[in-house]
């Protein structure tokens, strides 16, 4: 199980190149901080890793990756569905019984510091809470490749620290984790860095 990027390049239409010649191998057990200034193409690279966009140049190969989880910076949920229902859904899809799925979903939400909003409707959540609900939902789906877009941008320091610890434990549980982030603490906590801002060395 791995993700291979071969001489990857991308531009939207005939716009400027966001990046070119990105080659690296992403493996389980590591977490990759995708760094670079605003507009450098971090979210675009996540979309390429997810297979939602087709590279302009080069290739993305994902041998052994069956499930991809992607947590957006500005998540969209079902407004009147509760937080716990959002997280229970992938557990039900994986065959859990309803009562068990709800219990597990509530436990996951507690792990993300959301015990207090388990029964709140999605539309009543703050931006940071909504994103963490979707993070918990992505984890519930047991992804091989987990893509996170600015997971700490909307959080206070204490919650960010806890999210960074969660990212690290997901990494060590044998998934490929890629985090687009401006947060120096998240970048520090990740085991590898892919920098879209310059020609700094990239993991091979
Ligand atoms: N669908 C699109 N069509 C044309 N240009 C786009 C499209 N999506 C993004 N862009 C442009 O591509 C560039 C890279 O966008 P992207 O969202 O990947 O950057 P980013 O590094 O994630 O930025 P940020 O840190 O602000 O989230 C930006 O200049 C953006 O305006």
UniProtKB/TrEMBL annotation:
Keywords: ATP-binding, Lipoprotein, Nucleotide-binding, Transport. SMART domains: AAA. InterPro entries: AAA+_ATPase, ABC_transporter-like_ATP-bd, ABC_transporter-like_CS, ABC_transporter_ATP-bind, P-loop_NTPase. This is Putative ABC transport system ATP-binding protein/lipoprotein-releasing system ATP-binding protein. It comes from the Bacteria. GO terms for molecular function: ATP binding; ATP hydrolysis activity. The lineage of its organism: Bacteria, Bacillati, Actinomycetota, Actinomycetes, Micrococcales. Residues 3-204 form the ABC transporter domain. PANTHER family: ALIPHATIC SULFONATES IMPORT ATP-BINDING PROTEIN SSUB 2, TAURINE IMPORT ATP-BINDING PROTEIN-RELATED.
């Amino acid at each position: 199980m791995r993700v291979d990027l071969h001489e990857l390049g991308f531009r939207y239409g005939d716009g400027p190149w966001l990046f070119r010649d990105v080659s690296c191998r992403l493996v389980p057990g590591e977490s990759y901080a995708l760094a670079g200034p605003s507009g450098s193409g971090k979210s675009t690279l996540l979309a390429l890793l997810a297979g939602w966009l087709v590279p302009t140049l080069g290739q993305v190969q994902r041998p052994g990756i069956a499930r991809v989880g992607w947590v957006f910076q500005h998540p969209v949920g079902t407004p009147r569905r509760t937080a716990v229902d959002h997280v229970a859904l992938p557990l039900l899809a994986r065959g859990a019984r309803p009562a068990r799925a709800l219990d597990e979903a509530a436990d996951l939400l507690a792990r993300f510091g959301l015990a207090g909003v388990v029964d709140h409707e999605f539309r009543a959540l703050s931006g940071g809470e909504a994103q963490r609900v979707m993070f918990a939902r992505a984890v519930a789906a047991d992804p091989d490749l987990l893509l996170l877009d600015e997971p700490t941008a909307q959080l206070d320091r204490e919650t960010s620290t806890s999210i960074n610890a969660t990212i690290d434990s997901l990494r060590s549980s044998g998934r490929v984790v890629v985090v687009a982030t401006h947060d120096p603490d998240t970048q520090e906590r990740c085991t590898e860095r892919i920098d879209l801002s310059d020609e700094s060395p990239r993991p091979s």
